[in-house]
Amino acid sequence: MKKIIKYVIADILRNKIVLAYTVFLLVISLSVFSIEDNTGKGLLSLLNIILIIVPLVAVIFSTIYIYNSAEFIELLVSQPLHRKRIWISLFAGLAGSLTLAFFVGAGIPVIICAPGATGFTMVGMGMLLSVIFVAIAMLAAVTTRDKAKGIGISILLWLYFSLIFDGLVVFILFQFQDYPLEKAMIVVSGLNPIDLGRILILLKMDISAMMGYTGAVFKDFFGTGIGFTIALLVMFCWMIVPTWLSLRKFNRKDL
Q1: Other C-beta atoms within 10 Å of 244: how many?
Q2: Which candidate, 29, 235, 54, 17, places its Cα nearest to that of 130?
Q3: Pick from 140, 117, 102: which is nearest to 21 by CA?
Q4: What is the domain extent for residue 96?
């Protein structure tokens, strides 16, 4: 299992796309902090990049990698190895390499230029989102044999979590504006890891007042130790559940 993880990590870290992704994050991070005198503004500028680009790269790269590694996976399955170990090793290798790429590209500049609760929270959310969307990508890849269809499913899932979900939430709030839905939004926010990460980062920036009454409700819940712990547990569920579902499908799949 360790040998498979080391091979996958070494293979991915040599990939030009991952290297370009790391350099892109590094250049953007350093540029933002060099332009902005206020570290808070720099973090705010990085927020959308981390919440949109990081999940996009993680989900598309992971999906393509699984399809391109089909022959390698078949070779491993033909060996006296449990399918569970093979799939978990692939997940660990993908998640570890993309998390490392994010940490080097964006994490280190953020920690150096903006050390503090907000900076560490942003780095932590970026790493969690990398792992979550690797898990989602592996579920999409194992669902269908068609590479184009699998990549399409991954992109649609990213679009849903990044754009469509927020539109649906705004539509529901508009349709039921006469009802007190602020507390219900706490539950709804847990249905989208990107939104949950955004809320936790914004609350650490202490600009929840700009979010109105809903922001005050979020701050009352997620601003407490228990609320923040619950939010982290929900993020971990977003890692575990897709991985478990993809593992079940992989165990039953006829290669």
Answers
A1: 12
A2: 54
A3: 102
A4: 2-252
Interatomic CA distance for residues 131 and 150, integer angstroms: 18
pTM of the model: 0.90
- List the structure tokens of 59: 């989900």
Q: How big is the chain, counted in residues?
A: 255
Q: What is the pLDDT along the chain (255 residues), one digit of tens a residue?
A: 677 788 888 888 888 889 999 999 999 988 888 886 777 777 888 888 888 999 999 999 999 999 998 888 888 888 877 888 889 989 999 999 999 999 999 999 999 888 888 889 889 999 999 999 999 999 999 998 888 899 999 999 999 998 888 888 878 777 777 776 667 777 888 888 998 888 888 877 765 544 544 555 667 777 677 878 888 899 999 999 999 999 999 888 766
CB of 90 closer than 8 Å to CB of 70: no
Are residues 1 and 85 in contact, defined by beta-carbon separation less than 8 angstroms?
yes
Nearest-angstrom CA–CA distance, 253 and 255:
6
Query: What is the tally of structural domains in the chain?
Result: 1
Q: CA 225, CA 166: separation in Å to the nearest integer?
A: 26
Q: Which residues of 89-115 are buried (b: 16+ CB within 10 A; e: fewer)?
A: bbbbbbbbbbbbbbbebbbebbeebbe
Tokens of 139: 């579920």
135: left (phi > 0), else alpha (psi -120 to 50), else beta? alpha
Alpha-carbon distance of 81 to 77, in angstroms, equals 6
Nearest to 192 by CA among 227, 157, 146: 157
